[in-house]
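Methods — Computational structure assignment.
A single polypeptide chain was analysed. Its primary sequence is given first, followed by the predicted tertiary structure written as structure tokens.
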Amino acid sequence: MQDQAPITTEIVTDAELRESLHEEQFFASESHSGTLLIAVTMLAMLWANSPWAQSYHDIWHLHTTLPILGKQHLHAIINDGLMAVFFLVVGLEIKREALLGSLASRRKAGLPVLAALGGIIVPALIYLCATSIGAPQQGWGVPVATDIAFALAMLQIFGRNMPAGARAFLSALAISDDIGAIAIIGFFYSSALNIMALAVAFGACGLLYALNKLKIRLLLPYLAIGMGLWLAMFHSGVHPTIAGVLLAAAIPLRGTDSNADLSPLGRLEKILEPFSAWFVIPLFAFANAGIKVDLAHDGVGPVAMAIAAALVIGKPLGICLFSRLAVAFNIGELPPNVTWRHLFATSCLGGIGFTVSLFIAALAFAEGSNNFDQAKVGIILGSLLSVATGAWALRIVAPKLVR
């Protein structure tokens, strides 16, 4: 009589199943919105290089008068106001991943967090080395960010045969990368501080913390105080979009039952994630990606070359190097079915630094300056080259070499 193979069962809890479904929905949403980002970026570039280029720039400098804020132009409303919604969604996703998802334990978080750290440090060092003689160095923060929507869209297009763990790694890497980018914006790209406004902001954070501790589950009090927090940050000298992240940290992840999707955080995420992915980010890209490309006249300056090199070379180098260190020192482990070749192919997409890179460039350089235009050229050039190298690695290197 033949021995029967042992029967194994895998127990999946309701929470794990819901989190898995959430990750699938998140991946689909981000990858599809990445396709829209590509379209609006191309449209902005075409408009900015057309005979009607002046109308492109004029539309974003239309002014309007807002209560309390006074006279503001459309570009500032998008970058300072609407982008706070984007950073609120990023903060909500970070909190969910930190408590329930891919960053919820040391073993889970070790690899993507260390990889993201490498993907921040190495590109920054490459930029600083490349601009050490005669070029502005304040743009070192521009190439540290990974655009999760673009990167996941490229993985969806070119990496259909990649294991699911590679996709999870890229998502966790980009989220960890966002944490680093937020810290860089808050600490290194803030103007002269207004102590009174900062004190009001700290008070608002205290109220949000108190609401959380009192287990208040209504969203309205959080959002009302969050608006006050944004206003205080707007006048504080710290970029007001940071208010979105601080608000997200206070939104409760636990609802009246164990279902995180029914919690205040889950409800707010469900409302804002489509709005951010399909309206805020495309509008931001449309307002910021339009640069006049005149390489014959301006050339590709040191700022553009440094940013492009930092994205194309620095990102995959830093991600792979620090990933090796994480595994070697038992800080993290490779996801199931993911080899080092998969990780290398995925890390190439880390150089797609579009949305947050453009955002940091607007903080690092004066709007309309040659350095700002060169920074945008470097971001677009570096991101396009990263798409090309990532597509090559996903289609050729990983499938051929993986055993």
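Note: The longest helix spans residues 14-48.
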